[in-house]
Amino acid sequence: MRFAVRRTIFYLITAWAAVTINFLIPRLMPGDPVTALMGRMQGRIDSNAEESIRVLFGLDTGASVWQQYVDYWGLLLRGDLGLSFTFFPTPVSEIVQQALPWTIGLVGVATIISFTLGTGIGVAIGWRRGTWADALLPITTFFSAVPYFWLGLIAITVFSVTLGWFPSSGSYDRGLVPTWSWEFVGSVIYYGFLPALTVVLSSIAGWILGMRNMLVTVSSEDYVTVAHAKGLPERRVMVGYAARNAILPQVSNFALSLGFVVGGTLIMEMVFSYQGIGYTLFQAVNTQDYPLMQGCFLVITLAVLGANIIADFVYAALDPRARQEG
Amino acid sequence: MTASTLDVPAPTGTVGEPVLEIENLSVDYGYTDDATHVLRDVSLTLHRGEVLGLAGESGCGKSTLAYAATRLLPPPGLITSGSVHFTGRDGQRTDVLRQSDAELRASRWQDTAIVFQGAMNSLNPVYRIGRQIADGILAHRPGMRRKEAWDQAASLLEMVGINADRLRDFPHQLSGGMRQRVMIAMALALDPQVLIMDEPTTALDVVMQRQIVEEIADLRERLGFSVVFITHDVSLLIEIADRIAIMYAGDIVEDAGAQDVYRRPRHPYSAALLHSFPPLRGERRELTGIPGSPPDMQKMPPGCPFAPRCAHVTDVCRQVRPVLGPTALADRGGREAERSVACHLHDADLEGIDGTLPADLAR
Amino acid sequence: MAQDTTFTEEQAAPERAVEHDVDDPRRAKRFLFLRNGKALTGLGILLFFGILAVVGPWIAPYDPNQVSADLLQPPSWSHWLGTDHTGRDILSQIVVGTRGVLVVGLIAGVSATVLGVIVGVTAGFIGGMGDETLSALSNVFLVIPQLPLIIIIAGQLPTAGGVTVALVIGITGWAWGARVMRAQTLSLRKRDFVEAARANGERTWRLVLAEVLPNLTAIIAAGFVGTVTFAVMSQVTLAFIGITPVSDWNWGTILFWAQNNLALQRGAWWWFVPAGLCIALLGMALTLVNFGIDEFVNPRLRSTGMNARLLRRRRIRPRIGFTPVLRTPPDGRPDVGTTARTTRKERS
Ligand SMILES: Nc1ncnc2c1ncn2[C@@H]1O[C@H](COP(=O)(O)OP(=O)(O)O)[C@@H](O)[C@H]1O
Ligand SMILES: [Mg+2]
């Protein structure tokens, strides 16, 4: 299982790099905004929390960088990300913990829907090359170029301001108590529908175009012609021979562009004031809540890393060559 | 309905009757007016039980002919005219070019199977080879169970000399020679009457080439199918072919018995081609390449396409395109009368041709 | 593809496989690119925005910051695209903002491409441990979500003006290009002409400049266009969420003001629709140019002669596995070759 070992090492390195970047950013920035803020918070932060923030933001100019780095890791491993300034004195880890499920629910589900649907449509268009289906390409190209958040603005204008079908912000009816009741779950789906739709609409075009091009490329491989020569039914050739191979690069592209897609869709939370990580990050940036910013970034990176690992497993399951030892 | 079908030759119809008749087939690459006309009125007949060799330099249209005749030519290929008649075991004659998609699909692999140029890319990299052999069988035997099809695949593999436990291998786990054998086994799965092989040995080393050629000859003895064997290496054909057709720039320029072509070529191109390969066995002779290169099909000059490279070129060759016809020596009788050649040197009626052939074409 | 290495092969023209590019080599490849309709459309739109970026401030009807009494007016003759909540002219904001968008896109694109080429080509060329390290580095940068990274960097910078943002985008966005570049360099390195140059003892950096880079032009161009697209989107997004100074006009800033002043709720579509369309149009132009490059690099994607109308007229359905057969020969096409040919058997 050299494949698995290699990948594991890669993910460990990436996780380490993400943490290190997070450690370095505040230390490399010119100026010292955190000190100023700490000054304003004087007396309200207990000494323990103050200590964490000092470590997180490198205010301990007395200690060596190495010592700071070790302390930093120590904090992270204890799950201490400092205190949020905005939601003082709530710990960042707690805020992040609350926001993450919403993001995974919204962005995760929408991204999977978008990928699946887009791949299917891409197969259909690529297989019918040179027919009316090609007329869909310009529209798709346009949608792939539209900024995510702008599509969100348009969706709000049309579906909630003008038509009044969906709420324009929030993630559930504030009058309800969050429990596993039908009413509450229904409300979550109702509130999540428009943001999810927008995420799907804005990211699907990329998957469609990618899969279409891969399918066109793969369709001229010899083994597809062999499948035709064997007299297999058209669907079998399309699915089992052409699409089955075209999806391999599509999956590895999925893994690679996940960071990009997630970044874009997080903005959607900001547009819809949806209480996930993206919206939290937005609030943190606007209120200059540095601990919260750092915490959000770390969590987003680790989540994308996790999704990457899953995509890797899927790839290995799909491609026998990747599983090969050595 | 497993291994037994493979060993007993099925009733093959009358030996010597035509099984695949390609008539006036024309093929373009491109759908617009500036398309490349690659094949122009090509005719070729394959007889039952025969091994027909199709030879010529790369790019002369051999693959195009084979794929067009089976309608497997990829875009932008377009068949502009002609017919391809297949005669079944029951004597029924059908025009492949007029079949509907469903009819074509049903007849493929049962009537005509193909082994493609380059076995490296002919196998689906993500399916086990057993599955790839079996799905061809199952597509034509709706009632058959999966297990049966796999069993049959196993006996097919053993027939081409591969251990049956390789069935569960993926293509990347096999060597080049093995993959080519798998392709041959796959092509024979439904006991087809015609097997078209496009450069089946090109990517292999010489030893493996010999093995595969011998194996094909052997299998044909046992199963009695007809073969179109395409190669750019004429010397291979001497080993296996009954008849050889030589192609140049999209035309068949000579069509005759294998030994006749080999010992007594009648077309200057055939003669030149024979001199550019070392014979596998027999006397050694000096190798001479053919000077120049094949014409660009996009702008074919008028007249004989071989004229610019031909040692015996005359004025008429540069203006009039020759067509297949009898040789100048047809009155020798016997096998000579059955040969045809597309060369003005054989046409004494033409101005400037005196009817005496150069010595190397009149043996 | 089978490798033909036999005697005749060396003398005959190299085999052109069915899927190979069979365009006339004499037609320069450059023109092939320019004959591509998609690329041309894209370049046309880019040219339009380019000119707008240069002359924008002079041709804008108003000063984009000049407030007036026409608060939140819909499009009219005096304000073609209406006004915002303080009476500023939106058309002028868009026209003036073009420069900001393009400059950032260009700076970010150039810096990311240069970084990508350096890392990718170096990795591909040196191989071994150096390659492993550099590849791992670019993979790490690929996995880390860029936009959040840019957001927190830009959010912590005291002044995040256009150029700063562009550089941040460039520094975080080189990884994709490096990855592609490395793969291409690896395959180039094994080609004959590079090996030959190596054997002749050419200096490595000369080899890279003279032999390797020219062959990567198309890939570099594609990477550049891709990065510019990403940079434009990132910058507009950052402006929209208010991280970059809201006084720097670009299309994202307009959307920031619109979003924060309830343009949606007030139904002031003229405030946010045109700016978004401009972004989409620019993005589409860049994508089209990239399609052109893709088709240039991968001939299988080319749709030469696949004109749907022509195909329908000739009743051709191009498909893999079922070669179309022409039933009604199109009129006016000379039946090549048959004029000079009569069968010899007929004559004799
Ligand atoms: N897609 C294509 N477009 C235009 N010409 C092509 C195309 N594919 C092949 N050709 C031309 O058709 C000719 C015959 O090719 P092919 O049948 O592959 O030859 P062979 O199998 O004898 O090597 C070649 O000259 C080649 O240039
Ligand atoms: Mg060929």
UniProtKB/TrEMBL annotation, chain A:
Pfam families: BPD_transp_1
UniProt-recorded name of the protein: ABC transporter permease
Topology of this chain in the membrane: Multi-pass membrane protein
Membrane-crossing residue ranges in chain numbering: 9-29, 99-127, 148-168, 188-209, 254-277, 297-318
UniProt cross-references to InterPro entries, sorted A to Z: MetI-like (IPR000515), MetI-like_sf (IPR035906)
Alphabetical UniProt keywords: Membrane, Transmembrane, Transmembrane helix, Transport
Record localization: Cell membrane; Membrane
Cited Gene3D superfamilies: MetI-like
Ranges of residues in domain ABC transmembrane type-1: 100-311
Species in which this protein is naturally found: Isoptericola chiayiensis
PROSITE patterns, A to Z: ABC_TM1
Family as reported in the entry's similarity comment: Belongs to the binding-protein-dependent transport system permease family.
Automatic annotation (TrEMBL), chain B:
Subcellular location: Cell membrane
Tagged with keyword ATP-binding: yes
Keyword Cell membrane among UniProt keywords: yes
GO molecular function list: ATP binding
Keywords attached to this entry: ATP-binding, Cell membrane, Membrane, Nucleotide-binding, Transport
PROSITE patterns found in the cross-reference section: ABC_TRANSPORTER_1, ABC_TRANSPORTER_2
Membrane topology type: Peripheral membrane protein
Residue stretches making up the ABC transporter domain: 20-274
Main location: membrane
Pfam families assigned to the protein according to its UniProt record, in alphabetical order: ABC_tran, oligo_HPY
Family: Belongs to the ABC transporter superfamily.
Protein name: ABC transporter ATP-binding protein
Organism: Isoptericola chiayiensis
Organism taxonomic ancestry: Bacteria, Bacillati, Actinomycetota, Actinomycetes, Micrococcales
UniProtKB/TrEMBL annotation, chain C:
Keyword Nucleotide-binding carried by entry: no
Region of interest (Disordered), residue spans: 1-21, 322-348
Subcellular location: Cell membrane
Regions crossing the membrane: 39-60, 101-127, 134-154, 160-181, 216-243, 269-293
First and last residue of the signal peptide: none
Membrane-protein topology: Multi-pass membrane protein
Keywords assigned by UniProt, alphabetized: Cell membrane, Membrane, Transmembrane, Transmembrane helix, Transport
Superkingdom field: Bacteria
Domain named ABC transmembrane type-1: residues: 102-290
Record-linked InterPro entries: BP-dependent_transpt_permease, MetI-like, MetI-like_sf, OppC_N
Stated family: Belongs to the binding-protein-dependent transport system permease family.
Protein's name according to its UniProt entry: ABC transporter permease
